Sequence to fold (904 residues):
Amino acid sequence: MSEYLLEMKDITKTFPGVKALDTVNLQVKRGEIHALIGENGAGKSTLMNVLSGVYPYGTYTGDIVFEDKVCEFRAISDSENVGIGLIHQELALIPQLTVGENIFLRNEQVQGGFIDWDKTHQKAEMLLKKVGLKTDTRTIVRELSVGQQQLVEIAKILSRDIKLLILDEPTASLNEEESNNLLDLLLELKKEGMTCILISHKLKEVTKVSDTITVIRDGSVIETLDKDTDDISEDNIIRGMVGRQLTDRYPKREPKIGDVLFSIEHWNVYHPLVTDKKIIDDVSFHVKKGEILGLSGLMGAGRTELAMSIFGKAYGCNISGKIFKNGKEIHVNNVRQAIQNGIAYTTEDRKNGGLNLTGDIVQNTTIAGIEKLTKKHMIDHNAEITVTEDYCKQLNVKTPSVFQKCINLSGGNQQKVVLSKWIFTNPDLLILDEPTRGIDVGAKYEIYTIMNRLADEGKAVIFISSEMPELLGMCDRLYVVNEGRIAGELSGEEISQEAIMKCIMQSNREAV
Amino acid sequence: MDSFKKLVKNNLRQYFMLFALIILMIIFQIATGGVLFRPMNITNLVLQNAYVFILAVGMMLLLINGGNIDMSVGSVLAFISAILGIMLIQNHTPMWLAIVVALLLGLGIGAWQGFWVGYYRMPGFLVTLAGQLIFRGLTTRVLDGTTLAPFDKDFQYISAGFVPDLFKFTGSGVNITAYLVGILITVLLIVMQIRKRAQQAKYTSNVLSTPLFTAKLVLIAAAVMLLSYFFAAYEGIPVIFIIIVVLVVGYSIFSAKTVPGRYIYAMGGNERAAKLSGINTNKVLCLCYINMGVLTAVAAIASASRANSASPLIGVGYDLDAISSCFIGGASMYGGAGTVVGAIIGALFMGVLNNGMIIMGIGTDIQQVVKGLVLIFAVAFDIYSKSRAKAK
Fold:
C-alpha cells in the first residue's frame, strides 16, 4: 500500500479553444488535508470534475490512481462507489425536502421495497451529530442557513462510505463563525482518518488547516508545498498563484478623463420577490467620461443588483432614486429606455442572459440595435452582415464565418460577441459585469484592450469584477460595495487589495 | 460530386422532411396505383387540408417563440364557425360584415389567452387547455347542440370555389389561366433565386455551384408547373389555395425579414437575453397568441365554408393536427427554431399520409397508429441530428 491515497498523473483536459489542464500531477497522502489553490479559472474545479467523473473517462488524458488502482470513472456514481465524495460550490440539496430525505437521497434506507423513515431519521440524526449541526432531521432544508446547508451536504456525503472528501470553496458564502466551525469539523474528520481535498481562495483558512498545498495556475501545477518543510506564508503562496508580473497582464493606457457623465443619487432597491428586503441601500455615485470605474465587493455584495437596477430596472422592485446624465435627470423605466439613454449592460452570465446560443453571430450582434438596420420595415440583411463582419474584425472574434452559431464559440469569443452587440447600440455608458469570467488569459487581455479603447473614445465604463488584481490593473477609480451600500471610494494609487478589504471590514463593523 | 455530398450533409436537417415528403408521395403513388397524383386528388388534398395549413402557420410562430402551443384552436375554430353560422344562416348578415366580426372575434380570443400567458405568465399549455373547454362549451351553448346549414353559395365559394378561366372564350378546353399563373410564378421565383444568389455571392463564397443551382431552379420550375397542370386539368386554381399562398409568403417574410419576426426568434432562443436586449418579451408572447387567434378565425371561415355547416363537433383534434405538423416540419420543443415553410411541409406530409392511407382503404385505427409513429420518429430525428451537431 503506497503512502498516497490518490495520484493523478499527467492529466490534460481541453475544451474547444482552451487548454484547461496541462499535464497536471497531484498526489494526496492518506489522512491529510490537501489544499488546492489558484486564481479563478486556474483549473481547480476542472481537475476535481475530472476526478469525480463529471468529465467522464476518455474526455481527458492521463491516469487516476485511487488506492493503488487505476480508475476509469464514467459517471459521478463510479467515483462515489470507490469512496470519493465531492461537494460542489453550488449546493445540490433539494430545498423542499427535509434534512433526512436530502441526506439519504439516492441512498434511501429501504426495507422490503418501502422506505424505512424511522431508520432514515435515526441515521440522519447520528450524521448530524457528527457534523455538529443541531437541528431536527425533519426540518425542511429551505429553512436552514447556507452554513447549515453546507453541513447537511457534508452529512450526506458521510452517509456513504467515503475515503476522500473534496470540498470546492466550502466557505465562499459562509460568515466567519460558520467558516471556523466548518474548518474545525474538517480537522475533526481528519483525526478520524478522513482524507480531504480543500479548494479555497481564502489563504488564511488554507494555511490554518492544510498539511500540503498545491498551487495551480493556468491549468498547470506550479508547486506543491509541505507544511513542515516549505515556506507556506501567504506571500509565498500568492507569488505562486499570480506568477508573472501583474503589470504585464493589463494593457497600458493614458486615462483622459472628462466631465461627470452619469450620476446616481439615493438609489434604493428592494428584492423582487421578498419585497421588504432592501438590496441596495441609499447608494450615490458618479462616473465620468473616459473613465474606467470599478465596482468591487464580495459575492452577494449587491454589485450586479445595483447595475441591473440602473439598467432599466431589470432587477428589483420599489426602486427609488434619481439618475442624471450630463447633469439632467433622466427616467429609465425599462431596458429599451436604458438603451435609448445610452446605457449598456453585459451580464455576468453570458450563456443565460447574454446570448441566444442557438442563434448565429449576426442575429446576436444586431438584436439590441436591430431598428437601425431596417429599410421600409424590412431588416436589411446585407447591411446586417456587413456590420457583424466589421465588429468581428474590430474585436478579433475568431470564427470561420459570421453565420456560426454562438454555441460553437469559445467563452472569450462569446464575450466579444456580447460586447459587439452592446457597442453596436452606441452607448455612452457600458456596465460590464464580470466580463472576463471563465475565459482564458489571452482573451482576457483582448477584453481589457477593448475596454481601454472604449474609454479612450470618451465612453464611461463601469467594470464589475470579483478578481481584485483585474480591478487594480484596469480601474482609474473604484467603489467598494458591501451589503448593498457603498463602503468606500478609492482612486489612482490608493487602489490596493488591502485598502479594498479594509473598506469591507470597516463597513461590516459599522453594520454591527 | 464532393460539393454535392457536402450540400446534402450540411442541409440534411433542413431538407430532410422535403426529401421524406417526396419519397412518401412516390411510395403512395405506386401503392395507390396512380390515384394520388390524379388532378382531382391533388386538388382535394389542398381543399381538405386548408385548415391545417393556416393553423400550422400560427402554431409555428408560437413554437418558435419558446415552444408554446395552443391546445384551444379546435374549440376556438368551432366557436367562431358557430358565430358565423348564426350570423350568416340565421340572421342573413352581409358576408363581409360576418367575416370582419369573425376575424375580430379571433383577435379578441387571442388577446384573452395572450394576456394570461404573456403578462400573467401562466403556462400556455394550461391557459389554452382551459380555452379548449371554455370555447367548446360556448359553441354547444350558442348552437343549442344543433347544426346550422347550409351557407350561401357566396360563402361556400371560399373553400369550394375555383378561379374562373379568363380565357374560356377561346374554347380550347384547357385552363389557360392556371398555366399562365404557373408560368408567371415560375419566372418570378427564378428571378428571385438568381438575385438572392448574386447578393449572397457578395458576402460569402459559400454559394451553390452553378450546376447545382441550375438543378435547383429546374426542380422549382418543375414543381410549380406540375401543380399548375394538376389544377388546370381539374377545375382550376382553388380560391383557398390563393389565400394559403398569400399567408405563407406573408408570414415567411414577416418571420425572416421584419423586426418583430426577429424578436420572436430571439426570444425563443433565450428569453432572458432577449429581455436584457430591450425586447418587451411579455408583449411579443401576447402578440403571438393574438396572431394565433386571428389565424384561427381564418381557418374557421375556411372550415365552415368547406363543411357548409356550423356544428358543435367541428374542429375536434385540429389543435393536434397543427402541432404535429409543426414538429414534423422542424419546430423545437424549446423554441428558437423552425420556419413557416417547414410547418407547411409538415402539414403536407401529414395530409399526404392521411390521403394515401384513405385511398388504400386502411382503417382509421391503423391510420392513427401510423401518424403517431411518424410524429415520434420525426422528433427523434430532430433531437438526434441536434445532438450530433453539438458533438462536432
Notes: The first strand of chain A starts at residue 4 and ends at 15.
